[in-house]
Amino acid sequence: MTYPTLHMLIDGERVAPGHRRTHEVLNPATAEVLGQLPLADTADLDRALDAAKRGFRIWRDASPQQRATVLSGAARLMLERQEQIARIATLEEGKTLPESRMEVLMVVGLFNFYAGECLRDYGRVLARPAGLRSTVTYEPVGPVAAFAPWNFPIGNPGRKLGAPIAAGCSVILKASEEAPGSALAVLQCLLDAGLPKEVGQAVFGVPDEVSRRLLASPVIRKVSFTGSTVVGKHLMKLAADDCKRTTMELGGHGAVLVFDDVDIERVLSAMVPSKFRNAGQVCVSPTRFIVQENVFRQFRDGFVQRAKALQVGNGLDESSQMGPLANPRRPEAMDRLIDGAVTAGAIRHVGGHRIGDRGFFYAPTVLSEIPLQSAVMNEEPFGPVALINPYPTEAEMIAEANRLPYGLAAHAWTNDAARQKRLAREVETGMFCLNTTMLGGGDAPFGGVKWSGHGHEEGSEGVMACLVLKAVHEG
């Protein structure tokens, strides 16, 4: 497959590199250059802001049926173009083709759900004495600046575009410069389905330059960001200057509590593939395995055995179970975190090294008995490393799950019904999985607590985050 020619989308125009700075997009499996991506200058960003301003006036007045038609039409087009879009994502991000295909289906489901939500934007009438009337209505917040990372190059742009469009907002999408082709393909499906050209823009550029220019503009009324906690805090400070609404889906360090009353082989069959999905580059990836002492050895040894058997290779190869890391920064981060943990006393059972001399491949890694002061136990590793430690009691396991300031997603495996209720209440997280890896869906809110951010995407909450409430009182 030929990688597409890259561009920006501003006011319906495919903006080519021309005189602009460019960014080399690499294939993580080979480190070869796939294409040259144009980076926005100030004039490009101002033009996108002007288009978004005009687009908001158009789209806020569009009927719910119009919005629903665009979203459902885009879902149909994505299904028709599934293989093409999936291959673009695998080329530029590295994940396996089955994962990329599933990511397309995720956005198809999300767009179809949001199409239905367009028709369910309900207000309410309040009880008042005769002659008086009070209503509560919801209106689109305004143009949205949306920032999407590289790890889900199809899904993240789908989330950033779908909710504002369902709510009646215009959007300027700044997707990752390392995986731009997928984001452009998602927006193109919406435009081909009838989205007015002024409503959806796609720009790329130096992140700090783009964010400062967009967030300084009074045109933008909401900021949606997925990425690191450090960058999220920076964007929140910029947004505060103009009291812009924010949705922040930030870092995680997923805790997995494994108790001794479960079938360990069943847990391993679920959690090992989940851990190494997208080479661990998943914000909700299970990372800290908090295992009850008397099943610790069985769980650890089984995890190691399965990690050793994983087939690592080019994501385009159908036999690959794990692809490369997405960029050259990730192997460097893995080396630093894993070597630091081993130096501090952790046991390395498998992995902890790069694979080959071409691309950004890294071996699936399992560490155990890791000191809590190790950086890997406190920083989101965002890579293919499982951290397994033993704990004697439920109370100590919950304490470890809650020790960090992150709270995006957590898992627990237990067949004790009373314990399930306690864990669901006590574990500090935005999303919690009990005896499953099924986390979320188009109809379920996706978001975290504490340093993992605030606000939600997906579900009805995703659309509500793009609406403002108005109370109208009539006499």
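Second entry:
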Amino acid sequence: MKQLRFTALAAACLIAFGAAQAQESVRPDVGKPLQAAQELIKAGKYKDALAKVRDADAVSGKNANESYLIERMRIAAASGAGDNDTAARSFEALAATGKVAPADKARMAESISGGYYRAKDYAKAMQWGQRYFKEGGTSGSMRTLLIQSQYLSGDYAGAARELTGEIQAAEKAGTPPAQDRLNLLLNAASQLKDPGATVFALERLVTYYPKKEYWVDLLSRMQRKPGFSDRLVLDTYRLSLATGSMSSASDFMEMSQLALQAGHELEAKQVVDKGFATGVLGTGAEADRHKRLRDLVMKRIDEAKAARAAAESEANAAKDGNALVSLGFSTALGGDSAKGLQMMQQGIAKGSLKRPEDAKLHLGVAQVLAGDAKAQATLRGVGGTDGTADLARLWSLYARRKG
């Protein structure tokens, strides 16, 4: 890539040299060393070519065309020789003449930026990368070089801004953002201590390149947000379990106990069963405690079965929809999605709900777990500032990936 970029720049400069010679006479004292420099550039002898350019520049009384030709040859030789500062000065001199076409200026800026990047002068590489785009450049590889230069020079805010724009453009075009771009944005956001940019990157990573670590980070950040309600701990565990990011025995135990307390005995059984199946529960110093919990769950299931008919009758007769929503959610979590969703929708329609946003969140979760296409619309409609809307958004991301 380096050679291709420089070859294109050198070719453009040499072609311009010939064209300018044809348009206006060049004195032999200037033309001969420039001709020699041209041959040396073709031979890859850039430092020698620079010396010849200096010979031409030393001639007194140069006209505008001769000075222009000297700078064209100098930028080609200096770029090849890795003399980036000299190439940069020649660029400015050429740009001031008004004779350089926009495409040529972009090509020159690209070569200079690349030269500084290879020399690890990232601040100047960034400066010339920005100049490249100012001159109308559109190269994706140059966008990468600019972003890397910004990051490596410590301009994390600039890198984050460029990366965010690129990621949003990819999504708008229906293309998954590149994983390396998302990770670089995550790193830049970490350097900036910018929670908004961090969550922006993490949400896209769990959408397009999901890993347990990303979900753990996202869920932890959500729970640490000011105002997040303890009431939603069980809901958070549900998403953690669904995404495979729950791994400790204490979490499996607590989730199962919270599910029992909420009246979701079959959900509690599913959690305990998964804990035992994966070896998280039933082993170690607390194995007996795990088994006692499993026995308790089975006892509660038997008790709930006996009281089921009466509970449904009371829920249907109630003036508000709270009991129907709760019982329907428990039914859906237990595996009977069709009946559970119907009961939840009836309860929401009945109204007078104690926590309407919780009801919509739980309906959306039940729809996700059932593979219902209406889940996304339901989750988008969840509001609240105590964590319900945040949970709905994360469930929506999970459903998108799951689907």
